[in-house]
Design a protein that fits this description.
The protein is mainly beta and 123 residues long. 7% of the residues lie in helices and 40% in strands. The chain has one helix and eleven strands; from the N terminus they run βββββββαββββ. Strand 2 and strand 3 form a beta hairpin. It starts with 7 loop residues before the first strand and ends with a strand. It comes from Thermocoleostomius sinensis A174. Belongs to the transthyretin family. 5-hydroxyisourate hydrolase subfamily. It catalyses: 5-hydroxyisourate + H2O = 5-hydroxy-2-oxo-4-ureido-2,5-dihydro-1H-imidazole-5-carboxylate + H(+).
Amino acid sequence: MPGQLTGQLTTHVLDTVHGGPAANVAIELWQVPPSGDKTLLKLVHTNADGRTDAPLLAADELQAGVYELVFAIGAYFDRSMPSLPTPRFLDRVPIQFGIANPEAHYHVPLLVSPWSYSTYRGS
């Protein structure tokens, strides 16, 4: 349909210690307006493939602006590596990013260990 937005926001989590997807990671999706008063849009969990079952935002849900994903990595590593010392080095990993073109696909993966993380704009 002409004029209909086709963009989407997706993510996945890869556990770099174990070399595979990170299942059952809680992810919060926040909208961050210029005022700075964030609004929680969704709380989801990764599936066995380290992905969400559906896009976080799609079509007209995806608007230009600033968003933040917060990954509950500490809880995930508590389950997969219970002998890690406390307090955790990483607990909640926030990634704040901008959506400039709501008709595009924005994929924000998280590659993570208990001690480091990285991200990029994927496809």
